[in-house]
Amino acid sequence: MKRIAFVLHESPVQRTAGVELYVLNLAREFQRAGWDVECIHPDPRSGEPLGTVHSEEVDGVSFTAFSVPVKSDLVARFMDEEIGQALAGYLERSGAQLVHVHHLIGFTGSALMAMADVGLPVVMTVHDAWFCCNQCHFVRWDGQTCVDGPPSDELCATCLMERVPSLKSVYPHPTVAKIMGARTAFLTKALARADALLAASWYTRENLLRAGLPEEKIILAPLGIPGFEPQEAILRGSGPLRLGYLGNISIKKGLDVLLEAFAGLPRGVAELSVYGAVIQPEWFRMLAGLAEALGVNLYGPYRPLELPGILAGLDAVIVPSREESYSLVVREAFHAGLPVVASRLPALEEAVDHEINGLLFPPADAAALTMTLARIVGEPGLLERLGANVPAVRTIADDREKLEKLFAGILGRKKAGRP
Question: What's the pTM value of the predicted model, to 2 decimals?
């Protein structure tokens, strides 16, 4: 039996974000195709010796918690040879024929180095900008976005120190700036050791090229979704327009922008339903009062099985993000036949064709979003026209087929002794 290991940064039991759910769905798809699959994530909470493992089954998939120490050293957050070698040794002993990395937080870039050093075939899907942005998403401490990536090591240092004020008593700013530069250089070098780098979007591909990663290793690989059966749309009748926000709630995702925009609509012309887990509670507390005053429905986290029913009760999905590297939510909405209103971000522009299957507005511009929402409320037939043009989307089965071909080529080259 073919054996593959997926490496990620958290279990879907602890965090139901895009990467965790995607890995879970991909692992299940590989198991259905006859692969022996193990998903491995760091466990900094156990306090047990490095490399101690505990496994649990999540929807039929084995997830292994791999104990890693928590170190106060800032450099150890991205480079730790001891952890890297421990993980590579475990993967060798487990009999993994190939390793598919989805994130390295907790394991650090040293894990990629160590896997390559022992000859393990490694493919990495680059889901976000962690390799060149300590925050993963180019959204600064003040909510502003670094449009073309981090502009300087000094600004990256300021961003980190504003987010973690306690660092100011440990490191002077010039030292943190130097560490930020070393971080990007090291992680870029580590990614270059992978046999292939998969970019979910052209936007991510450009980030990798901008960082100096070899073009020949970068493969454009959009992410698929589980092929759920869309439910028949619940007819709205003459009621208010039904708008939906889905996904985790954080400053990056821009729910504050949507609430401010929604407040600009006449009361009663639309209703807003929010589905998702709160990732930044302190930030969200500032929004809760506004949401309540506006009569917004806050439903909290939802399970994948609930998704078809949620989408069947909406007329449009709003994606007001300040930054995105891909967006599975957009694809889920399209799969259900719903148009999308989204921030005009590079990765979202790749999916949402303005005036064809959705509408775009300037990121973080609540006034522009209000105008866009007012348009879909007041323009007869607009949503129907947009909804009629939503594209077919990739499925997780499509991803598995593409990956199997890629894996076979890499394993064949390794067997023949070719790089």
Answer: 0.91
